[in-house]
Amino acid sequence: YHAKQKGNHYLFFNDSMNEQAVKRLQIENLMRFGLKEDHFVVYYQPKMDIKSGLLVGMEALVRFITPKKGIISPGVFIPIAEETGQIIDIGEVVLDKACKDVKRWIDQDLFDGRVAVNLSAKQFSLPDLTTRIDIILQKNHLPSYFLELEITEGTVMDDPQEAINVMRSLSARGIHLAIDDFGTGYSSLAYLKQFPLNTLKVDKAFVDDMHNERGRNMVDSIVTIAQNLELHVVAEGVEKADQLAILEELNCQTVQGYYYSKPLSAEEFTEFLKQQKSVKNKQTTPNLKVV
Ligand code: C2E
Ligand code: MG
Ligand code: MG
Ligand code: MG
Fold first, then answer.
1. I want to staple 233 with a disulfide (CB 3.0 to 4.6 A). Which of 12, 226, 246, 266 is the partner?
2. Is the Cβ–Cβ distance between 64 and 77 less than 8 Å?
């Protein structure tokens, strides 16, 4: 109500706008404190090969666990962190923790694929982005081969020419690049062809819409675009067996979603990897005996 008492501010501030501003400020302060106190934790969601049902990779997803307000969802704090610039520090914490965890899983012989880390627009436009990534990889003794970065269409279409340069320097290091939430932004197909990409991620909204023919046609079109550009396709937010069946029919190779697993804590993911390893051993042992 403070703003209301000051001159004619009340003309522009209603209660709900004021409430929103207060909430944003609260979250900004919680994030500043959380960065100091290590309240940002990384969860991992498996990416599964449809045909074999085996794990092929995982996505690192940040969780903000505050002692007083409980877990704050990325949908709430990421947009605010983008605006305040705190996403740069949060993103580095996530990358550092993801590298550390994956290095451990590789050393334990539980994993030898890539971890996908989301990269925000603010991070992508940092002039020293590649140096920052190199430093974090080196610190964790993790070769760049094990890293994939997920970026949105908006991030790369803002300044496509510059984006090509940044993506080339990342790609030259062996880092894989994925377009996240593909189809929800506006990508120019002409540019899509020029980007050194590896993967298109089909947004959950399209997967949810596959119960009707037009929806299925949309996913079919996205898979075709990916095939024509020789890109890998990952469908996000797969929750049901019938969605999985349609995606297999449409030649989508990889899926991520609650059907296989929700995002897991590092400890839970370790168990998931151990389970996967025993399934894999059972599937390959008979063949090995023949050889
Ligand atoms: P995203 O990168 O598209 O990540 C996929 C989101 O879909 C995750 O939400 C995941 O938990 C959710 N998801 C996966 N499978 C299913 C499913 O079967 N059903 C449903 N209902 N949801 C599913 P989450 O973890 O809440 O993250 C939301 C968004 O926040 C992410 O979308 C990403 O844009 C952003 N984000 C998360 N972690 C980071 C991060 O470390 N850095 C940055 N810059 N952004 C992040
Ligand atoms: Mg993502
Ligand atoms: Mg996504
Ligand atoms: Mg999404």
1. 226
2. yes
Question: Which residue has the CA at smallest separation from atom 37 of ligand 1?
Answer: 61
Nearest to 260 by CA among 17, 54, 23, 11: 54
CA of 18 to the centre of ligand 1 (A): 28
Backbone angles phi, psi at 212, to 5 degrees: -115, 160
The closest ligand to the CA of 150 turns out to be: 2
Tokens of 60: 């690192």
Token digits of residue 21: 């501003």
Burial 268-287 (b: 16+ CB within 10 A, else e): ebbebbeebeeeeeeeeeee
The phi and psi torsions of 22 (rounded to 5 degrees) equal: -65, -40
Residues with CB under 6 A from ligand 1: 45, 61-62, 73-75, 78, 87, 91, 94, 118, 120, 150, 180-181, 204, 236-239, 256-258, 263
Task: Quote the tokens at residue 50.
Answer: 């449809």
Residue 70 · residue 61 · CB < 8 Å: no
Do 200 and 182 contact (CB within 8 A), yes or no?
yes
From CA 152, how far away is CA 253, in angstroms rounded?
Answer: 20
Q: Which residues surround ligand 2, an ion (CB under 5 A)?
A: 118, 150, 180
Q: Measuring CA to CA, which residue among 246, 278, 281, 240 is closest to residue 260?
A: 240
With a threshold of 0.95, tell me whether the complex ipTM lies above it. Answer: yes
Tokens of 240: 């049901």
